[in-house]
């Protein structure tokens, strides 16, 4: 695995491709307003949506990583702009709907999305985190909701998604207190999957990307869809099992990758998946 980086665009969100070898890449989206702690304003949301779309369309990109520039992952919305925006009964609801569509895009991408939580992560930053498939945190990370500290409420998943991730009681405590958790406490709570030294955060993400790059892109996409669609749509147990059965049946009967995996196993070699 190499770390040759291909920079595609700059601005509110930096879009890069990191070479994993063998023609596979990790996509890296970096929230890029470090002087303001990477606020989740309309420009940042638009940059994230565009970056997600760009990397999703690139078949060489196997996993998307999201992180922040500087000392913060994302410190939430730009509160200085809210005073005027929240008096606009047309524009404010539109902004919130656009935000929710971006978060939904994260959850419906055809490839995994992993948060690399590198510092202060509050409010909208937390909502980015919980819309990822999972997240790794740097030891310096501080994570919480924080909306209620300034008379605000989460509108991108802090109230609807968080309880299903960490349980209703813990979610209520985190939201109502506005407390920021150290990385180790976030790990214990299940908000992040791993805590690593600050200078090893990207490497930890790339190690996961390397694993995904060795799997069938088609199988990865289908597995992610079954998990996320069932949760997103509130499927009951039996409906979720039915969705799983339908997807796996179609995959194994129609895909070249399923046959290639079995052939590789029988021949004691590494499979060569094509995504077909």
Write the layout of secondary structure elements.
Elements lengths: L4 E5 L3 E9 L2 E8 L10 H16 L3 E8 L3 E3 L4 H7 L5 H18 L4 E5 L2 E3 L1 H8 L2 E5 L3 E3 L17 H5 L1 H10 L2 E3 H7 L4 E3 L4 H13 L3 H16 L4 H18 L1 H12 L9
Parallel strand pairs: 3-4, 4-6, 5-7, 6-8, 7-9, 8-11
Antiparallel strand pairs: 1-2, 2-3, 9-10
Helix pairs in contact: 1-3, 9-10, 10-11
Structure description:
The chain has helices spanning 42-57, 79-85, 91-108, 124-131, 162-166, 168-177, 183-189, 201-213, 217-232, 237-254, 256-267, and strands at 5-9, 13-21, 24-31, 61-68, 72-74, 113-117, 120-122, 134-138, 142-144, 180-182, 194-196. With 276 residues, the chain is an alpha/beta fold. It has 2 domains: 5-213, 2-enoyl-CoA Hydratase, Chain A, domain 1 (Alpha-Beta Complex); 217-267. The strands form 2 sheets. A 7-stranded mixed beta sheet has the order 1-2-3-4-6-8-11, sandwiched between helices. A 4-stranded mixed beta sheet has the order 5-7-9-10. The radius of gyration is 19 Å and the shape is globular.
In short:
By secondary structure, this protein is of the alpha/beta class.
